[in-house]
């Protein structure tokens, strides 16, 4: 009983408190993205559509999930903390695209602020994870192997999709048509996925399949 109470003790570290300004900044940015015509005035129609889709996803899913999960994580829920950190990864991912893939405009400083707050919140949360509790849960209730296989399968599909756009264009000495549609020098989605998310997905998927 005492050990269980200690494991579920409330925590209010700095990185968890950053969820408050993160949600405020995120909601403000998403709403202004719809309201201000100047927000994406210099983007192509394809890129504006993707920006609005991300704004909508942040408002309807990403930010509410972070707020709710943070509430339970503050009360010692390990599962809620993991869900919250996963949702913050998505915000960091989107913030990098906004900061580097959207032309300079009225929301630039807001995008930089979101990138900063979300990154430090993620770093603090990962550093504070109780690895012993995670190991104990994995040993008593390991996820089925198909979970890891699904992660690897999705990573393989996206790796093939992005390389099918990049490699033929490089061999032909041309710019990928998908890149021309968004009007960017390079596609930040390709960069983030191929450099970070896809390698991490392979490591995570294989590790889960091996029940590590």
Characteristic terms for this protein:
212 residues; flat; disordered N terminus
Outline:
The chain has 212 residues and is an all-alpha fold. Helices cover 79% and strands 0% of the residues.
Describe this structure in words.
The protein has 212 residues and is mainly α. The protein is built from 10 helices and no strands. Helix 3 (19-35) runs antiparallel to helix 6 (108-128) and helix 5 (78-101) runs antiparallel to helix 6. The protein starts with a helix and ends with a helix.
Total beta-strand segments: 0
Distance between the termini: 28 Å
- How many whole angstroms does the radius of gyration measure? 19 Å
Q: Which structural class do the helices and strands define? A: mainly alpha
Q: Judging from the principal axes of the Cα atoms, what is the shape?
A: flat
- Kindly estimate the percentage of residues that lie in beta strands according to DSSP: under 5%
Task: Tell me about the largest β-sheet.
Answer: none
Which residue ranges are poorly predicted, with pLDDT under 50 across at least 5 consecutive positions? 1-6
- Whole-number average pLDDT? 90
Binned, the helix content reads over 70%
**SSE run:** HHHHHHHHHH
Give the arrangement of secondary structure elements.
Blueprint: H1 2-7, H2 14-17, H3 19-35, H4 45-73, H5 78-101, H6 108-128, H7 131-140, H8 145-172, H9 177-182, H10 188-209
Helix pairs in contact: 3-4, 3-6, 4-5, 5-6, 8-10
């Amino acid at each position: 009983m005492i050990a269980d109470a200690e494991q579920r003790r409330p925590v209010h570290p700095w990185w968890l408190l950053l969820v408050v300004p993160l949600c405020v900044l995120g909601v403000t940015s998403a709403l202004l993205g719809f309201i201000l015509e100047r927000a994406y005035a210099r983007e192509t129609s394809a890129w504006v559509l993707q920006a609005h889709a991300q704004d909508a996803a942040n408002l309807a899913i990403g930010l509410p999930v972070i707020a709710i999960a943070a509430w339970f994580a503050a009360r010692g829920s390990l599962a809620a903390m993991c869900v919250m950190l996963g949702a913050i990864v998505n915000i960091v991912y989107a913030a990098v695209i906004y900061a580097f893939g959207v032309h300079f405009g009225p929301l630039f400083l807001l995008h930089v602020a979101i990138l900063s707050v979300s990154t430090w919140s993620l770093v603090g949360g990962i550093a504070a994870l109780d690895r012993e509790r995670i190991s104990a849960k994995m040993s008593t209730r390991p996820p089925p192997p198909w979970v890891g296989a699904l992660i690897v399968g999705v990573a393989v599909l996206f790796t093939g999709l992005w390389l099918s756009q990049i490699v033929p264009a490089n061999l032909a000495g041309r710019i990928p048509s998908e890149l021309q549609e968004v009007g960017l020098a390079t596609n930040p989605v390709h960069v983030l996925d191929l450099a970070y998310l896809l390698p991490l997905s392979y490591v995570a998927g294989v590790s889960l399949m091996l029940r590590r």
